[in-house]
């Protein structure tokens, strides 16, 4: 058995163990509702499904730049995307996982990371709260996944059913940005937003549950989702006064070993050092919307590139231990010019070569 097959077997065993713990009655997994719609066990719970996007291949740039690392992926294949209505189904509020009729619906999670990350502190819960009204879930997770997945999916559900009740995970109390985004949504909708907060460990039995099928790879955000987020939140944005910003992770767990020196170099070149985790959501949107040049340590704060000003320049600083090209694609989707610099493998998260940084910053002038 080769390594790939061993990994698949391990994921299958872990997946089945986790799902069985949360959904004792769910004995099988439905990977795609459209593929199983003619199965009576599935069709009996599907009240409706609307295709919002056919299968597409997205190319990020007309041609691949010569200096781009091999692990930067410049095209992506997206499966068809649907918004679903399921009836007589069970919803795990902590993870977003849905089951009905002894079947677990994989599209409600998209990828296994959410369940695997949360499994260690999932509480036992044998009772279900009955919800008769149409509802959808705003899943609580970290900033990148919240904006690119949870929030984007909520907007799809609101398009499909503007008066749907929004179930808010109890874990949202850990993330102040969730309530801030809900406040912005209320403003955008003139106050017409019904939120249903849940207690810790709650699971729901829903008669009309709405959700958008999630992408299997969270690092790929379709341009339609980016445009939807910009259309919703940019009309009320006010461009910030700082035109050149450095999004630093100096005080984060994963910070460059010479973070203070990097900040000093950026400041000498006229950049304002900012820490998104210390700012409100509205301040972050305004900041990125008004910036002409952005330096950023690779991290969740750069998901705000979604609100960037087309034509702005971006320099992303990578750790040698992190190879994630998601922000390259976000930047390209918005129309930003993306450059990168990889730190050397010296201490902790890595050390940014200051001479190379100086050269890159002169190119941004």
What topology does this entry show?
Blueprint: H1 3-22, E1 28-30, H2 33-36, H3 40-43, E2 46-53, E3 56-59, E4 75-78, E5 81-86, E6 89-92, E7 98-100, E8 103-105, H4 113-118, E9 129-131, E10 135-138, H5 143-160, E11 165-168, H6 176-188, E12 195-197, E13 203-206, E14 209-212, H7 223-233, E15 244-247, H8 259-268, E16 272-274, H9 281-290, E17 293-297, E18 313-318, H10 326-334, E19 337-342, H11 354-364
Parallel strand pairs: 1-8, 9-13, 10-11, 11-12, 15-16, 15-17, 17-18, 18-19
Antiparallel strand pairs: 2-5, 3-4, 5-14, 6-7, 6-13, 7-8
Helix pairs in contact: 5-7, 8-11
Low-confidence stretches: 116-125
- The total of helices stands at 11
Largest sheet: 6 strands, mixed
Distance between the termini: 54 Å
Global shape = globular
Radius of gyration: 22 Å
Question: What pattern of helices and strands is seen along the backbone?
Answer: HEHHEEEEEEEHEEHEHEEEHEHEHEEHEH
Mean pLDDT: 85
Instruction: Assign the structural class, choosing from mainly alpha, mainly beta, alpha/beta, alpha+beta, or little secondary structure.
Output: alpha/beta
Beta-strand content: 15-25%
Compute the number of structural domains.
2
Helix content: 25-40%
Strand order of the largest sheet: 1-8-7-6-13-9
Number of extended strands: 19
